[in-house]
Design goal:
The chain has 319 residues and is α+β, with helices and mostly antiparallel strands. The chain contains nine helices and 18 strands.
Length: 319
């Protein structure tokens, strides 16, 4: 799936490398209570959770921002031909390069590659195989790498421990060695377009990237939110959160910041339409998916949100 929205003068595009009902709920979220899934069945079932097989739907999404002559790729998925511990991610063979070209982000068009963090499913298309070597997929681009995350995984690599099945060596080090990296940290202006904000927890150096244009805003939040149930129950950590206490605190603060502000929230693992607004409800939050023309539950459609969604939907372009 490739779909785009306008955020002010910017075009934001979601490109899904793959998605499907693949995760057992309480394996991804050890504290999960299935009663919460059943309570929100009208919002989740058939889109984000398949009750009959008890699987959560997970996407691997690459984000593209075009603005002011820049084409920015945010997080680069799993990649092809890479050895990974997870069977569904191991030695993939997709046509993502063709899809990127269709979305206006072919290797010679991308000016910047931005990483929110360095897990294997966010760095894979940084590189492609050339004979016996991994080389940058986007040789003309600047790769913006969170320094704190790099230092964390580099230390693990120095101890001789494979990082995420080898992703640090096949997808991160080659772009560093090619001299294409610009280090990023919280407070930076990234690619003259995005504002980097600390999102520590899922990994030690994770950054959220904020896009603001003409009074509109979107935030590329990496894995602050791993699945829509994280909006419903932000206290549930995922099994892949490296720093659980920080992860839960970051989610709570993030949801409080974006709720009811018509900020387009763009995680990397939400099923289509991949993006959502966050709304306050009672003592918590709900998510309000946008852009796929499906009627939304009444409790996720306050009047303020409806007008904002109409504005986005009117400018949406399916590619």
């Amino acid at each position: 799936m490739i779909a785009s929205w306008r955020i002010g003068a910017a075009t934001v595009t979601a490109l899904s490398e793959y998605y499907g009902p693949v995760h057992v709920p309480d394996r991804l979220f050890p504290d999960l209570d299935r009663a919460v899934l059943r309570e929100h069945r009208d919002l989740l079932e058939g889109r984000f959770w398949y009750e009959a097989i008890d699987r959560l739907v997970i996407s691997v999404t690459l984000w593209i921002v075009t603005l002011a002559g820049r084409t920015i790729l945010i997080d680069t998925g799993i990649g092809n031909g890479k050895t990974r511990r997870t069977p569904r991610a191991n030695m993939m063979n997709t046509v993502v390069p063709d899809w990127l070209a269709a979305a206006g982000a072919a290797p010679d068009q991308v000016t910047d590659v931005v990483m929110t963090h360095l897990h294997a499913d966010h760095v894979g298309w940084n590189t492609v195989r050339d004979g016996d070597h991994w080389v940058p997929t986007f040789p003309g681009a600047t790769y913006h790498v969170p320094r704190a995350d790099f230092e964390h995984w580099a230390e693990i690599d120095r101890r001789g421990e494979a990082v995420d099945g080898g992703s640090f060596r096949d997808s991160v080090l080659p772009v560093v060695e090619a001299g294409l990296v610009r280090w990023t940290q919280a407070g930076d202006r990234v690619a003259d377009t995005l504002d980097a904000v600390s999102a520590r927890g899922h990994t030690p150096g994770q950054l959220a990237m904020w896009l603001r244009s003409e009074g509109r805003a979107a935030v590329f939040c990496g894995d602050i939110l791993h699945h829509p149930v994280h909006v419903l129950r932000p206290e549930w950590n995922s099994v892949v959160d490296v720093e659980p206490d920080h992860a839960a605190a970051t989610r709570q603060a993030f949801l409080a910041e974006v709720a009811d502000r018509d900020v387009l929230v763009a995680p990397c693992h939400f099923a289509p339409p991949h993006a959502a607004f966050v709304r306050r409800e009672a003592d918590g939050y709900v998510f309000d998916p946008i852009g796929n023309g499906t009627a939304l539950p009444a409790h996720a459609r306050p009047a303020q949100g409806a007008s904002a969604r109409k504005d986005l939907s009117a400018s949406e372009k399916a590619i």
